[in-house]
Write a structure and sequence with these properties.
It is built from 16 helices and 11 strands. By secondary structure, it is α/β, with parallel strands linked by helices. The protein has a domain at about 315-360. Helix 2 (about 10-25) packs parallel to helix 12 and helix 3 (about 40-45) runs parallel beside helix 16 (about 350-360). The relative contact order is 0.16.
């Protein structure tokens, strides 16, 4: 019953029992759940969980990759600032993400100074070590990384440091997907990392408004299986609530200190996501009190970006949960992790990258 990889897992007996209970909850119709976390996709794919689910159950990935949903204009802004001679820092996953004409990796090849860092603290240290340079950190990520960005600004970084803020918020994107109805979702596996910061409460309006079951799950195979079973149990009982499976790390109130830092530094704004239109109240922007650290204001950068994706790339549909990665005609052909055409093939959190590397069963 269990896959070869899961056979090696210490809780394979428990996995078998959970899978049996999942099958017992058959609603006699197709059921479609979505997760919004690259780490969940890695677990599902690496351990072959989709091959274990009954035919009536589908678990599809959504916009859980922050690098993938950073829009083309933001990538192009970072590239333009690099071309102007400024020192750009960013995460490794951002390095090869395609903009309109090139990537930050391409800009570096052409002579720009682009450096990979582990976080905002490293970027600030780079600014201190290079006082004669303007250092701009491309701050990407969901609620998981936004508090670390905020913390650095509250420590008063040097004057030659600034931010290109590209942070996004997960619950508004989930609401967009429910409101559009395109993906026809029956429930969400909510992201574990994000939820350690925001807790369970921000998801509650979605369940109340759309009667959709939601479960915050951890990242072990057993966590995911339990999350799926808990969602099916809610469906069977006619409930639409937010439950926490990942109780060892997530509290309903979340990390209050991190939330306070985010509120102090950022305000919430409308923003377009790559593969999506403008999603209301879905992104962060520096408050007026921190405008001297806003690279967009400081350097008055303007770009004219083109389409989100290259011809033939269907990353937008992957991010909206409309197709699986293997349904893209470029998948593992013109587009590979070594030569990515779309953002979902670049990062280790991207669904296409994960599918290409781990050869999913479905």
């Amino acid at each position: 019953m269990v896959s070869a990889l899961l056979e090696k897992f210490r809780d394979r007996g428990l996995a078998t029992r959970i899978l049996r209970k999942i099958r017992e909850l058959s609603p006699n119709r197709k059921v479609r759940f979505m997760h919004v976390c690259g780490s969940h996709e890695l677990t599902i794919t690496k351990f072959g969980l989709r091959s274990l689910f009954p035919d009536w159950l589908e678990v599809i990935s959504g916009p859980g990759c922050p690098v993938c949903v950073t829009n083309v204009a933001e990538i192009d802004e970072a590239i333009e600032l690099a071309k102007q001679g400024h020192l750009i820092t960013t995460f490794g996953d951002m390095f090869q993400v395609p903009g309109t004409q090139t990537s930050l990796a391409g800009a570096k090849t052409d002579g720009a100074d682009v450096r990979i860092v582990y976080g905002a603290a490293d970027a600030v240290e780079t600014a201190r070590r290079n006082p004669e340079r303007e250092v701009i950190h491309a701050a990407v990520g969901f609620e998981t990384t936004a508090p670390t960005t905020a913390s650095e600004l509250l420590r008063e970084p040097p004057e030659n440091f600034s931010l290109l803020v590209c942070h996004r918020l997960i619950p508004p994107a989930m609401e967009f997907l429910l409101a559009s109805g395109d993906a026809a979702l029956d429930g969400f596996i909510c992201p574990g990392h994000v939820s350690t910061i925001i807790g369970s409460r921000p998801y509650e309006p979605l369940s109340k408004r759309y009667r959709v079951p939601q479960v915050i799950a951890g990242f072990e195979p057993i966590d995911v299986l339990l999350g799926v079973w808990m969602l099916l149990k809610q469906l069977r009982e006619g409930k639409g609530e937010v439950e926490i499976e990942y109780t060892r790390s997530v509290r309903s109130e979340g990390n209050v200190v991190a939330q306070e830092k985010m509120r102090e530094v950022f305000k919430i704004v409308d923003k377009r996501w790559r593969g999506f239109p403008v999603i209301p109240k879905s992104a962060l922007q520096l408050r007026h009190e921190f405008k001297e650290y806003d690279a967009r204001t400081k350097f008055d950068v303007h770009v004219e970006s083109m389409a989100d994706f290259a011809k033939g790339c269907r990353c937008g549909e992957v991010l909206r949960g409309l197709i699986h990665p293997c349904e893209c005609p470029l998948f593992n052909k013109a587009c590979t992790p070594e030569h990515p055409v779309g953002p979902c093939a670049v990062t280790t959190e991207g669904a296409c990258n994960i599918a290409m590397k781990h050869k999913p069963s479905s």
